[in-house]
Specification:
Helix content is 75%, strand content 0%. By secondary structure, it is mostly helical. It is elongated.
Length: 257
């Protein structure tokens, strides 16, 4: 009898834990960007390191141009310098392409999330990506689209005009591209202005990578907070609907009695 009593009062072993209201709410069309943002930041850090190496190699090669012109370096040493510069340049280009692909996927998801956050935007996800490839317009439109996404992703209306690193990032990126084009036009001149131009261009490229990482991290976190706020708003709606449904059922039962 004692064993039977123990089994009678034994609690069930598999009881499903009650689901919290937050777990029941999902935002259709919203994708968390926190993990993807970390990948983009890691790639930007690698590309920044490669750009720093590339700048150092270019400055070193420029410093040896007078020796090459004077015949102080053997043809083998010259070939090694050219090979080193081409290798570092190729690695930098490959890292830039990989980083750009992942970054543009992040940009697309940012604009897709605006739908899930119930924010009205006049920029489609596809337009936000193609804006980077339209000549001349790609000097302005990507900046405007990113700034609009920053404002629409604000968790509260009071945070829409919060300062962002977008302007610094885009300014450094454009300036770096312009100076890079100027250095290519200048060729391999060893004069001080050309070396200074190469150094400034490299510093701007690294600054652009740093502030781009800040934009990616802050905007991703901004959308995450906005999603949490939207979920709370949806939970309140569900609770109100549930209370109205209960009142309606109670009223129907009273009428039936």
């Amino acid at each position: 009898m004692e064993g039977a009593t123990d089994n009678l009062y034994k609690p069930p072993e598999h009881v499903a834990a009650p689901r919290s209201p937050a777990a029941e709410v999902t935002l259709n069309g919203y994708t968390s960007l926190l993990r993807r943002a970390k990948v983009v930041v890691a790639l930007l850090a690698i590309w920044g390191a490669v750009s720093l190496t590339m700048t150092g190699v270019e400055l070193y090669v420029l410093s040896l141009v007078p020796d090459v012109m004077a015949g102080l370096l053997s043809p083998r040493e010259v070939d090694e310098l050219v090979s080193l510069e081409e290798t570092v340049g190729l690695v930098s280009l490959l890292m830039l392409l990989v980083t750009a692909l992942v970054f543009l996927r992040w940009v697309r998801t940012v604009h897709e999330n605006l739908v899930g956050l119930e924010r009205e935007s006049d920029v489609t996800p596809s337009a936000a990506v193609t804006a980077y490839f339209i000549p001349f317009l790609n000097f302005v439109r990507p900046y405007r689209h990113m700034l609009q996404a920053w404002r629409l992703s604000a968790p509260k209306r009071s945070e829409r005009e919060a300062p962002s690193p977008i302007a610094i990032w885009w300014g450094a990126w454009i300036a770096s591209g312009v100076l890079g084009y100027m250095t290519r036009l200048a060729g391999t001149s060893a004069d001080a202005p050309h070396s200074l131009l190469v150094g400034v261009q490299g510093a701007l490229a690294i600054a652009a990578a740093f502030f781009c990482a800040q934009v990616v991290l802050k905007l991703s976190e901004r959308q995450e907070r906005a999603a949490a706020r939207t979920k709370r708003r949806w939970r309140k709606r569900r609770r109100r609907k549930a209370r109205k449904r209960k009142r309606r059922l109670f009223a129907d039962e009273r009428e039936a009695v």
